[in-house]
Amino acid sequence: MTVGILAYGSLISDPGQEIKDARIATKKDIKTPFNVEYARSSSKRDGAPTLVPVEDGVSVNAQIFVLNVDETEAANRLYRREIHKVGSGREYEPKENPGKDTIVVECVRNFEGIDAVLYTKIAATIDPLTPENLAKLAIESAKERRDGKDGITYLMDAKRHGIETLLSREYEQEILRQLGVEDLTNALAAARSA
Asked: Rounded to an integer, what distance in angstroms lies between the CA atom of residue 162 and that of residue 134?
């Protein structure tokens, strides 16, 4: 049985050591089998908007990391990566009634030639979901962080991987407008110096 992990956000650039160690192939140029948007304010990124599955959105560019472990171990490694506990040995345990901060590991069967493709699902929390609000959250996170875990860097990484949502362009333009700059690199510098 083939097992993979679907990456459509920061997981592409930063899968964590356990997933890297198990990866035997990467399938590129695929689309998520669900809609995605910058709809969650991440507490681990000082409120930065992050990509999550949503009903109202679009399918985006993604990759599948094909692993040499079984489905249970793949779920454990994905879960540990998401809770920032890589190497801890913690195991994923599904919750009957997940809350808004519960990480849920879902599975798509027989997707892109892989028997089981796992991905994380976590609730959208940004309301109202507007370019103005996304930009404000991204800028505030960039003022606080110097480690690349801010919203502007997250958006730049997503763009580099060809990920475009319904709000991507307006979100980017709003960051530039609010900071009075021409591009995201200058936006990051401006936010950090504010």
From this structure: 19
Enclosing domain of residue 55: 3-193
Alpha helices in 62-129 (DSSP H): 71-82
How confident is the model over 146-188, as pLDDT tens digits?
999 999 999 999 999 999 999 999 999 999 999 999 999 999 9
What is the spatial distance between Cα 193 and Cα 188, in angstroms, rounded to a whole number? 9
Sheet holding 61-67, edge to edge: 23-31, 61-67, 3-7, 114-121, 104-111
Identify whether the C-beta of residue 80 lies closer than 8 Å to the C-beta of residue 18. Answer: yes
Q: Which alpha helices (DSSP H) does 84-130 contain, by range? A: none
Q: Which residue has the tokens 């681990």?
A: 44
**Contact by Cβ (8 Å): 132, 183:** no
CA torsion 159-55-52-60 (nearest 10°) is -30
The length of the chain in residues reads 194
* DSSP string for 139-166: HHHHHH-SSS-SHHHHHHHHHHTT---S
| pTM beyond 0.85, yes or no | yes
Q: Decide if 40 contacts 48 (C-beta within 8 A).
A: no
Domain count across the chain: 1
